[in-house]
């Protein structure tokens, strides 16, 4: 649209949706834009059906202030994550509220991409307001292309973002599972600028997601977090060292995790090391902390905590999907019911 500042439109959406900034004076201050400019672009978003304008209660007899919020009904997103034997999914509205969720089994040795496409087709037919997709995979991803997927050979070197965007003509974001999980934990717990590492032992190999001072770390080649290949001892990698663990963590697994914790502490010095709560117990964390203290002074050991991995994962995919929504051109068409 003529005279529209696309960057400002995106910033307004994100300030209202993610930072919960509600008034023009606040938006003008935070975005360093004039009152009339902010008002003009808010009016465009209102006309586009994205933003609601509300009049607040009178305060101290003063003039009622207008407040703005994102419309939950504006769009719906679909988050999906791929496991070896299933595809999980969640449908959410434009403010991130979960509307429905479920899982779809994947037969052994069945390629994941055709199964994923069939599931998305079905969900889009049932939910015509879905207008963007966020997909999580247990693999290294660069700009939507999967390039390191040792446990998912059918995904290796697949431009998953391109395939899905072409197939469904909607915006798509594809992200590594642990990157999504650490984003989801960060959003859900409002850890501000803290440095976090999310460690997942995994059914099919370990991985980690890394946030430093609140910023996701992908690395120069998008390989950050692939801890399965980290060398440890006796010519074993971390992945090999924990491969034979049982439900109760054995001493070798405890030691391997403690060595990795030491590596994280000595290189990144995070505030938190987060574990999948279904993989470790509080007793395991006590053992890991005690063993790590044999390698480094206890003052440098991050706080070890448990969390619900699937919830964090889906929350992260939801946040990534909403981020994608806010970055779309103002004139972009959305899928709507006829």
From TrEMBL:
Gene3D superfamilies per record: 3.30.420.40
Pfam families cross-referenced by the UniProt entry: ROK (PF00480)
Signal peptide: none
Keyword Methyltransferase carried by entry: no
CDD domains on file: ASKHA_ATPase_ROK
Keywords: Kinase, Transferase
MF-aspect GO terms: kinase activity
Family the entry assigns: Belongs to the ROK (NagC/XylR) family.
PANTHER family tied to this protein: BIFUNCTIONAL UDP-N-ACETYLGLUCOSAMINE 2-EPIMERASE_N-ACETYLMANNOSAMINE KINASE, ROK (REPRESSOR, ORF, KINASE) FAMILY
Descriptive protein name: Sugar kinase
Source organism: Exiguobacterium undae
Origin organism lineage: Bacteria, Bacillati, Bacillota, Bacilli, Bacillales
């Amino acid at each position: 649209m003529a005279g529209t500042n696309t960057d400002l439109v995106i910033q307004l959406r994100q300030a209202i949706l993610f930072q919960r900034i509600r008034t023009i004076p606040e938006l003008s201050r935070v975005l360093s834009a004039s009152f009339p400019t902010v008002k003009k672009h808010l009016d465009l978003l209102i006309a586009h059906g994205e933003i609601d304008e509300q009049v607040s209660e009178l305060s101290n007899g003063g003039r009622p202030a207008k407040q703005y919020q994102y419309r939950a009904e504006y769009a719906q997103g679909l988050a999906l994550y791929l496991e070896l034997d299933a595809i999980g999914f969640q449908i959410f509205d434009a403010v991130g509220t979960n509307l429905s969720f479920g899982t779809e089994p994947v037969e052994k040795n069945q390629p994941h991409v055709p199964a994923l496409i069939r599931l998305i087709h079905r969900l889009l037919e049932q939910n015509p307001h879905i207008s963007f997709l966020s997909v999580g995979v247990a693999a290294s991803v660069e700009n939507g292309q999967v390039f390191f997927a040792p446990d998912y050979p059918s995904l290796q070197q697949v431009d998953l973002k391109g395939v899905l965007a072409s197939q469904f003509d909607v915006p798509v974001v594809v992200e590594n599972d642990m990157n999504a999980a650490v984003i989801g934990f960060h959003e859900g717990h409002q850890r501000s600028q803290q440095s976090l590492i999310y460690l997942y032992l995994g059914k099919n190999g370990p991985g980690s997601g890394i946030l430093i001072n609140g910023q996701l770390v992908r690395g120069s080649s998008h390989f950050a977090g692939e801890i399965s290949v980290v060398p440890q001892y006796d010519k074993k990698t971390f992945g090999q060292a924990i491969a034979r663990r049982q439900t109760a963590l054995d001493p070798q697994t405890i030691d391997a995790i403690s060595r990795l914790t030491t590596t994280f502490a000595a290189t990144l010095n995070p505030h938190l090391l987060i574990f999948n709560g279904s993989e470790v117990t509080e007793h395991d964390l006590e053992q890991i902390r005690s063993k790590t203290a044999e390698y480094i002074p206890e003052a440098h050991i991050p706080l070890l905590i448990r969390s619900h991995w699937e919830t964090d994962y889906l929350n992260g995919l939801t946040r990534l999907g909403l981020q994608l929504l806010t970055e779309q051109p103002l004139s972009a068409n959305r899928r709507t019911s006829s």
